[in-house]
Amino acid sequence: MRTVLPKQPATVFVTSTKENLQRWHERLGHQSKKHVQQFLKSRGISVDSDNSKCEACLFGKQPRNSFGDRTAYRPKEAGGQINVDLCGPMEIESLGGSRYYILFKDDFTRFRRVFFLKNKSEVPSYLKQFLEEAKLAGHEVKQ
């Protein structure tokens, strides 16, 4: 009888029959580990109990600073602060041929005024019109 030796050493791959709870926690969308264990147990999959914290979950639940109280910055009267939004160009023109609109909003009263524009170059004339309308209503725009 003769002994035959392989030219290269043999390689062995070993896998664990026990599943990793953290891996299943990640696979199942970061559900609580308690629920993951119950789910796996009901399906005959055994996992080791794992009390380690999931870094992704901790990062996702980290506390954020509040935006703060806006009441300190809110105007105390109409015209105290006007917010303006210009939107466009729209893909489809309005019935009047406009492709833009500009919105003026009084931060104190929440009053809104919308103008429809065919071109962005019309913004200064509508701003002037809005300021005149506010003045006629007795509300001088401050900001």
From TrEMBL:
<keyword id="KW-0540">Nuclease</keyword>
<keyword id="KW-0255">Endonuclease</keyword>
<dbReference type="Pfam" id="PF13976">
    <property type="entry name" value="gag_pre-integrs"/>
</dbReference>
<keyword id="KW-0460">Magnesium</keyword>
<dbReference type="GO" id="GO:0003676">
    <property type="term" value="F:nucleic acid binding"/>
</dbReference>
<dbReference type="InterPro" id="IPR039537">
    <property type="entry name" value="Retrotran_Ty1/copia-like"/>
</dbReference>
<dbReference type="InterPro" id="IPR036397">
    <property type="entry name" value="RNaseH_sf"/>
</dbReference>
<dbReference type="GO" id="GO:0006310">
    <property type="term" value="P:DNA recombination"/>
</dbReference>
<keyword id="KW-0548">Nucleotidyltransferase</keyword>
<keyword id="KW-0239">DNA-directed DNA polymerase</keyword>
<keyword id="KW-0233">DNA recombination</keyword>
<dbReference type="GO" id="GO:0004519">
    <property type="term" value="F:endonuclease activity"/>
</dbReference>
<protein>
    <recommendedName>
        <fullName>GAG-pre-integrase domain-containing protein</fullName>
    </recommendedName>
</protein>
<dbReference type="GO" id="GO:0046872">
    <property type="term" value="F:metal ion binding"/>
</dbReference>
<keyword id="KW-0695">RNA-directed DNA polymerase</keyword>
<keyword id="KW-0479">Metal-binding</keyword>
<dbReference type="GO" id="GO:0003887">
    <property type="term" value="F:DNA-directed DNA polymerase activity"/>
</dbReference>
<dbReference type="GO" id="GO:0015074">
    <property type="term" value="P:DNA integration"/>
</dbReference>
<keyword id="KW-0808">Transferase</keyword>
<dbReference type="InterPro" id="IPR025724">
    <property type="entry name" value="GAG-pre-integrase_dom"/>
</dbReference>
<keyword id="KW-0378">Hydrolase</keyword>
<dbReference type="GO" id="GO:0003964">
    <property type="term" value="F:RNA-directed DNA polymerase activity"/>
</dbReference>
<feature type="domain" description="GAG-pre-integrase">
    <location>
        <begin position="10"/>
        <end position="62"/>
    </location>
</feature>
<keyword id="KW-0229">DNA integration</keyword>
<dbReference type="GO" id="GO:0016787">
    <property type="term" value="F:hydrolase activity"/>
</dbReference>
